[in-house]
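Amino acid chain:
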Amino acid sequence: MAGAAADAADARFVLEFQVAGGARRREALASCRCVRFEDSLPVRPFRFEKGLRSFAGWWYFATTGTHVGFESWLERDHLMLMDFDPGVRAVSSQPFWLRWRDGEGRTRRHVPDFFARRDDGTGVVVDVRPDDRIPARDAETFAVTALACEAAGWEYRRSGDLDPVLVANVRWLSRYRHGRCLVPGIAAVPSPAGRACSRGRRRPGTGCGCCRCCST
């Protein structure tokens, strides 16, 4: 029965996306499991007009040395934390349109905020929204997105509010993950814990001494 439900979900969903260097594609979910969505381009433009309620921008993602877009401060903070997660290999923003028909036959669509690729090769789809700002229609959209991700073999996260102290600390550390802070010839030296530093891909406080961002 579980397999039949997964097959039904596969047939229900269509993804529209564009991987860097390629044409825009629209394919059934079942044929998209192996697509490198961590390399996809945003499927809709970011808006930077004056007077908007949200704030869009680009985050320097030190793990890959690229810029990843965000549409709110909360999205930026979650993106920043993924950049510090040693289990995350790469992240893209607004990776695809998810399209489906609801119970009344109406066409619906949704763009998740992020797609993250873990070091083990698995995928994570992330929607960011403050916990107190999820109306019923959006809750339904998130539930349907979770169903699609389950059918594709991806984890789904609806990420909400964060600890402000954690955010402040990681934001302060993040500025030292840029390549300009790397000390050439020293970064490859193993840390006391036996790991080499990779521009901050180690937990703060280890005192490894291989770059200027180390703390003791």
Notes: Confidence is low (pLDDT under 50) at residues 193-216. Helices lie at 2-12, 73-84, 136-152, 164-174. Residues 178-216 form one domain. The longest strand covers residues 88-93.
